[in-house]
Amino acid sequence: TIPPEQIIETMQQHPLLDESTEYGYGTAGFRFKVEHMDGIMLRVGIASAILQYELFQNTKTNTNTNQQPQQDMGVMITASHNDESYNGVKLSNPDGSMIPPHLEETLVAIVNQRDLDLFQNTHLKGFDFRSTAKFHVGYDTRSHSERLTSLFIKGAQAMGVTVINHGVLTTPMLHHIVLHSNAKAYLPASIPPCPSRAGYCQAMGSAYLELCNVVAPCAITGDRSTPLLVDCACGVGYKAVQEVLSEITIRGNLTTCKPFLVPCNEPGEGPLNTNCGSEHVQKQLKPPTWYSKTGQDAAKSYCCSVDGDADRIVFFAASSSNELGSLLDGDKIAVLIGKFFQAELSKAYGGNPKLPKVSMGVVQTAYANGASTQYLEKNLKVPVVITKTGVKHLHHAALEFDIGIYFEANGHGTVVFSQAYHEFASQAKSICPALEILPRLINPAVGDAVSDLLLVDALLQHFEWTVQDWATKLYTDLPSRQLKVQVKDRSVVQCNDNETKCLQPTTLQPALDQLMSDIPGSRTFCRASGTENVVRVYAEAPTREQADKMATIAAGLVH
Ligand code: 16G
Ligand code: ZN
Questions:
Q1: DSSP bridge partners of 163
Q2: Whose CA is nearest to atom 19 of ligand 1?
Q3: What is the pTM of this model?
């Protein structure tokens, strides 16, 4: 611990760039052009000790029972799918989820304190400098991430925080490491704790092999005709996929087989997230540009794209070297997982009707294609909840189910399991071993592209489906269009709780309702972005022309 005067001196050396604005903790952390991040990172480091202290104190007062031992937290330095000129920072709760609103508020207050009289800050009054706080840190491949990490560490160590620097990680690896370092509090005994990068790769590799063994043995016995090409967006995903693949190859005795996964587009091969990655594929509806260089037979293509920190994934098949045949987004992934769980559950109850009942639900946002929501509700008869955009909102809603599947259309999502589910799965194990294996392959902390691609691959092998089968055998997406509208102040548009209706300006929703009643089976909504100063417009309709026209009209209404 260093004396307060020295902390203040360090803060003076790294001031906040913009003196007049309040830096906000957006949908997914502080994220700005990199020149703003130095001052922010140092202050997040300083704040880290206080966050853990507050969380710990709150646990004590809220539960009023046994004092919980203090648990590790985490920090990830990344700007996800944004280009190299941005960086950012996200914090992780001890269970690997995003920090709650009251901690975001504390963090924003500390980071934005301009007068440097930090120790008069209410959050610091009574702060015990013999901090026992411990933070796990990881960062992405951006050229400035390592420097920003060292500023975080400087701030945190000044406050007596112990920092474990894991180096370059995917975002979901960091969250997994944090969760597993607090395993006793959050994981059932059936999941062995593995709080490290190597442990993560071993856990993923062995769970994938176990799952294939019971539901798709053909996946791991011999050469695949079509390997899965993974577009790593020139980011952290590349090394992660390589390591998990090598784990699977060695453990599964697959050294003589052709690899079933081919990581492509490694760091250095091009600018991060530029003309590649999940955001590009999902929003531009185009294959990443490197795809044309692979010389793949487009008719057989089996590909996926992850984003710059590998917490999102979409799958695609090309129709030619630079055209997309099908896009398999987060909605399609959620439905595939839901369909599999449902089949396994009915097998389990068929084998033993006395098994305890578990609930299953799917959480989506207003961006979910209407055809996916309808398929889930009508065909699979699974309840669907719609929440506000942003993983923390979906995650929270998913916890209401024993099996809570959540995905944003952009490919960010996962499955969370209740304690009751784990007990059920251990009883159902002899009939349905997959039910017990899945919580080890799925990263319950946060959306995880590497975990998702292994899961999807095992399920496609199980159903004996190609990507094209997956695209056509469930439901057909309604044509949709997204537009962004540049505005002076995005806050003029305000929505209801799940962003399906506009409340402000008051004239907007009636006009949107009129648009929708003119085209049966259509839907449109507008919301203020949580990451850019724009208003986003979404429209879907039975035909492409109608969807495009509707989006254009709706965008005109926002101006
Ligand atoms: C952030 C969110 C993502 C959301 C997106 C919406 C996390 C980890 N990421 O990237 O889930 O879809 O923001 O952006 O929560 P928007 O508010 O600009 O539309
Ligand atoms: Zn991301």
A1: 135
A2: 529
A3: 0.94
